[in-house]
Amino acid sequence: MLKKLASSVLVAGALLASAQGAFAEEKLFKNYVYQTPLAKFTEAAGYYDCSEDVGGTARCIDDVDFLEEKFTVALIFSGDKLMMVSLISPFDQNLYVKAIAGLSKSFTLVSMSDEKSILDMFDTARKSRSTEELTTKISNFEQVGLASGNLTYTFLEGLNAKGQTNAVSALAAAPENIRSAELVMTGQGADSGMIIRFTFPRLEANKILAEAKKPVESF
User: Fold this and answer.
1) d(Cα 82, Cα 61) in Å, to the nearest integer?
2) C-alpha to C-alpha distance for 155 and 32, rounded to whole angstroms
3) Fewer Cβ neighbours under 10 Å: the N or C end of the chain?
4) What pLDDT tens digit does each residue of the chain (219 aa) get?
5) CA 93 to chain CA mean position, Å
6) Spans of all domains in the chain
7) What is the CA radius of gyration of the chain?
8) Torsion of CA 68, 182, 178, 105, to 10 degrees
């Protein structure tokens, strides 16, 4: 199951480039703290090396409780520091509904995406003439994404949706430690699965900018 979903886990990882830095302790998921050293997640504590399956430095642990269900948790590292937590499960309709409802309690849905396009929730709402038109656009996008076996819902925690014009500007204006959650539906039929991944997109972006500003060694 882990191998089936590895490519989706890495999509975000490829976008969040490797860089080092020191930040205040921020929890990615439950007690998993951003930038925790890799060495802390030992075999004695139940973790195993799943780097080959994930395609990058990673540690996994099975049977973690969330939403009254069991998940495999994949911890993704950059520079041997924790940067992302992904919860992996086979697809289940009830779990899918519970995940949407659970995330919506403290997170705001800002966009949906598939392999070819992005539906910006704020921009789409602003351009829709009625609630019915907005609902239809969202429903149509969902149906296409689910049918293709690739659909991602992106949420931002604690975001006030009022007055937002688009998802990009909403993230840019958000606090540096804003947490994102992505609900990823991937695969079809027996191979279909679900991933919930947590990151701090602005903290990671700041790390990249800090690295870019460092003087380049002459060669």
Assistant:
1) 14
2) 19
3) C
4) 554 444 444 433 333 333 333 345 799 999 999 999 999 999 999 999 999 998 899 999 999 999 999 999 999 999 999 999 999 999 999 999 999 999 999 999 999 999 889 999 999 999 999 999 999 999 999 999 998 999 999 999 989 888 899 999 999 999 999 999 999 999 988 889 999 999 999 998 877 666 666 676 655
5) 20
6) 2-212
7) 18
8) -40
